[in-house]
Amino acid sequence: MAGGSFGPTGVAKDRAEQYQGKVTSYVIIACLVAAIGGAIFGYDIGVSGGVTSMDEFLEEFFKTVYDKKKQARESNYCKYDDQGLAAFTSSLYLAGLVSTLAASPITRNYGRRASIVCGGISFFVGAGLNAGAVNLPMLLAGRILLGVGIGFGNQAVPLYLSEVAPTHLRGGLNMMFQLATTLGIFTANMVNYGTQKLKPWGWRLSLGLSAFPALLMTLGGYLLPETPNSLVERGLTDRGRQVLEKLRGTQNVDAELQDMVDASELANSIKHPFRNILQRQHRPQLVMAICMPMFQILTGINSILFYAPVLFQTMGFGGNASLYSSALTGAVLVLSTLISIALVDKLGRRALLISGGIQMIICQAIVSVILGVKFGDNQELSKGYSVVVVIFICLFVVAFGWSWGPLGWTIPSEIFPLETRSAGQSITVAVNLLFTFIIAQAFLSMLCAFKFGIFLFFAGWVTVMTVFVYFLLPETKGVPIEEMTLLWKKHWFWKKVLPAANPDEAESNNI
Hints:
The protein has 511 residues and is mainly alpha-helical. Helix content is 75%, strand content 0%. It has 26 helices and no strands. Helix 2 runs antiparallel to helix 11 (211-223) and helix 2 (36-51) packs parallel to helix 17. The longest helix has 33 residues, at 418-450. It starts with 24 loop residues before the first helix and ends with a helix.
């Protein structure tokens, strides 16, 4: 990246070529422990759909849905349409939305570890309430506490990973969060497949098992080192240098540390980061913080992951077959995330997002056509067509797993200057959880209303986001996190939006 001044935002000098260091065991252990937060997030996404398809759970808390499910004449697309059942899934994300805004000042003023510990404790208590629930209010209270844990964990963990990782491997290591999320989803699917045979209490085991990784996350938060960026921001520069030397495996960290010091001086001059982030010089990052998580959810992936067993039962799969099929999609998601980790710092973010978008559009269109032509309100898909549908849903999941799945979190976590980084991550998580809540609450009703058209609805959004990436997202591969602000003034569109720092720069931007 070329050097140059960039006014009051971020680090003004390009020192990337002076950064030294390697991937140390210290970095790997820190990333693995921090990413447990992603595993709990994924487990809670995956476990909901399996539990809500278990007859014992429905009979205990949602008798109306249970009765409707047993009626042979009920429309295939509408048998699970119940706002109370949707609230069980979506309440977690609404709570996460609110709590992530509260997590921002804690993350900034007390460090990334403080938010990780808060998230772990909340997860642990919520899992216990869910496992022991005897009525719907207790069940929802547990889900809300899980949501609080998600708000804190998703706010702090991606920031932690971005700040700990070396620049040249930041994309791959940051994706540990998404890999852990996909492993959590797959684990939940396998747990559901086993616990549905443990009648009538199997659902309690499914919901309660998230207490174990929550405990690991809490202990990890106590034992992990704080990020050097956070230490420097809070005035602990000497301690930050010590941690940075351990992370990089060298004492020659002057250039990287100086970038952190420069960024922290500016960050500490900003007293109201949420107000500051609305200023014009932060407009590109703000747009990405809103659009990337929004688009990630509007791919339709969460609808498949939340309600995979319900969706497959709707298509005529038996109870066991639907859980098995959803476990298959979970396994595919894990494998495709590994592909992304291997390629993101070689091919770049844009190539993965665009190719993944094209594949998702094709797969959703094909599934919609098959369901529209071969699947009616009171019919079942033939075995052959059912296999084809599962194959194309898996191909859709593969495309998501190497593109919008990990990069929807990675890109927003790496683009903000230090002074607005915590606020920016809060906005990213809040938008993600807001749209997750909306889709989770509305999906069963949308499935009833749109029928097979639900897949075309999401395909339309994937088209929009693919065009957005092509024209508006610059490549962030290999750009140091404290020098990311230099990237936007070189982009054909964003350099017109940003204020010029001085007349010379304004003239160079128009060349």
